[in-house]
Design goal:
The chain is of the alpha/beta class and 461 residues long. It is built from 16 helices and 16 strands. Strand 9 (227-232), helix 9 and strand 10 (262-266) form a beta-alpha-beta unit. Helix 2 (17-32) packs parallel to helix 15 (410-421) and helix 15 (410-421) crosses helix 16. The protein is globular, with a radius of gyration of 22 Å. The two termini are 21 Å apart. Bound molecules: pyridoxal-5'-phosphate. The site of pyridoxal-5'-phosphate has 14 residues, from helix 6.
């Protein structure tokens, strides 16, 4: 395995050191988890890639931990180890694992009342829509079973009402498996993102792409007049965290309005900024908001909200079939179980008060990591977005997806992830994200700080 810590870090980490540490941690991981290792070895016959969903191959150490159970901010594996979980299902469990109000709502809808999926509305749906409107602004909401579908259907509506063919995304964004979004900016112009699997159409035909925080590039793209919508996270979260610079989001709003392009804020991850995500926290005014993952407390769900003018346009458009086979909607979307779970999560778990606690925990997490980096002279940084924080292997926080991509270091990722997992702490297998849920405690955060400090000490010793 090559030893290639990011350039800045290489100055303080001795040659070959990361590779040796990874090897040691891999051996510990294999020895600590015989049951998971065996389950994985036996699963390959009929599971594609040996896992229920191929991303689960992302976990370090050669095989994933097998889940026994999870509650709040803790989970246990089938070898009997307990973990403090800062991965939280890559945000799907931002409400914590199986929070009690969602358990009750799900049991009631599925068991007592019955009718998980009937193609009939329940009264919970209007409550959830009103709550999402209160939190995010857009007045008219529709439900999906994933954030991916919320984005896909919002994009269809945007293209329909603007009669424009393309969308615009940011280089190294992630918005789910939305075809148009797998495009990156390179010195040679836009390119399909490496690894883009079986693309139906080269995404450089269907999408424009710019780097985050570059308003001039955005204006150049919008000026062509063929962009239906800008699909963005107000802060990028899927290539590390990239925060908007002062004035950037105001420029995006001004430019999209000036060029007749709709603005879609994907708040699926940036919900960590507060009860109404970045949209509410930073007083943004998008035409569309999409969200998913966490708002059902772990039960599949997603939603998109559109402004009243957009709603009027799409409802009045006789050439758009949004009631049958026009490409928007799905059989199980908005089902009674999913909607009941969203109501319970928003009403009782991911409340305004809960976010205050979660954000304070992330403040503590960030301060702890900063202390470790300073005391060991590691030229890395940590960026916080409300209840979420992420460290990155460069001295200065990246200002674009391209810059953040350049700071990636798979080997350091593997070392840190394995070091933590072997000692009872999980962070996301994708880069170095940690998320707080309402059940996370100060002691959980301090446990991470201590382990992160010990892992850092070994790197520089
Ligand atoms: C910002 C953002 N939008 C959408 C999605 C897609 O979510 P899902 O995989 O639940 O459809 C993701 C997934 O990571 C995401 O990070």
């Amino acid at each position: 395995m090559p030893d290639r810590p990011a350039a800045a870090a290489a100055a303080v980490i001795g040659p070959g050191r990361v590779a040796r540490l990874v090897e040691r941690e891999r051996a510990t991981y294999a020895a600590r988890h015989p049951a998971s290792r065996q389950a994985f070895a036996e699963a390959g016959a009929n599971l594609l890639g040996g896992v229920p969903m191929t991303w689960m191959r992302m976990w370090p150490g050669g095989f994933p931990l097998y889940l026994a159970g999870a509650s709040g901010a803790r989970l246990t594996d089938i070898d009997g180890h307990e973990y403090i979980d800062f991965c939280l299902g890559d945000t799907g469990a931002m409400a914590g694992h199986s929070p009690a109000p969602v358990q009750t709502a799900v049991a009631q809808r599925y068991g007592e009342l019955g009718g998980a999926t009937t193609m009939l509305p329940t009264e919970d749906a209007a409550w959830v829509a009103a709550e999402l409107a209160r939190r995010f602004g857009p007045s008219h909401w529709s439900f999906t079973l994933s954030a991916t579908d919320a984005n896909r259907w919002a994009l269809r509506i945007a293209r329909q009402i603007t009669a424009r063919p393309k969308i615009l995304v940011y280089s190294y964004c992630y918005h789910g498996s939305v075809d148009e979004s797998f495009v990156i900016a390179t010195p040679h112009g836009p390119r399909s993102r490496p690894g883009n699997t079986g693309a139906a159409v080269d995404p450089t035909i269907t999408a424009g792409v710019v780097e985050f925080n570059d308003a001039a590039a955005l204006e150049r793209e919008l000026a062509a007049g063929d962009i239906a919508a800008v699909l963005m996270e107000p802060a990028m979260t899927n290539i590390g965290i990239v925060l908007p610079e002062e004035g950037y989001l105001a420029a995006v709003r001004e430019l999209t309005r000036a060029y007749g392009t709709l603005l879609i804020n994907d708040e699926t991850h940036t919900l960590s900024a507060g009860p109404g995500g970045c949209t509410a926290a930073w007083l943004l005014d998008p035409d569309v908001v999409t969200v998913g993952k966490s708002i059902g407390g772990g039960i599949p769900c997603g939603a998109f909200g559109i402004s009243a003018p957009v709603a009027q346009q799409i409802l009045a458009d006789k050439s758009a079939d949004i009631v049958d086979t026009g490409g928007v909607g799905g059989t199980l979307a908005g089902n009674a179980l999913s909607v009941a779970a969203m109501r319970a999560t928003l009403e009782h778990v991911l409340t305004d008060e809960a976010f205050a606690v979660m954000i304070a925990l992330a403040d503590r997490f960030t301060a702890g990591v900063r202390g470790v980096l300073a005391s060991h002279g590691l030229p890395w940084n940590i960026v916080q977005l409300g209840a979420r924080a992420e460290y990155r292997f460069c001295a200065v926080p990246p200002r674009s997806g391209g810059e953040s991509h350049a700071a990636a270091d798979e080997q350091l990722d593997e070392y840190l992830h394995l070091y933590l997992a072997n000692r009872g702490v999980l962070i996301t297998p994708f880069h170095n994200m940690a998320l707080m849920c309402p059940a996370t405690t100060d002691a959980d955060v301090d446990a991470h700080t201590e382990l992160f400090g010990a892992a850092a000490a070994e790197l520089v010793s």
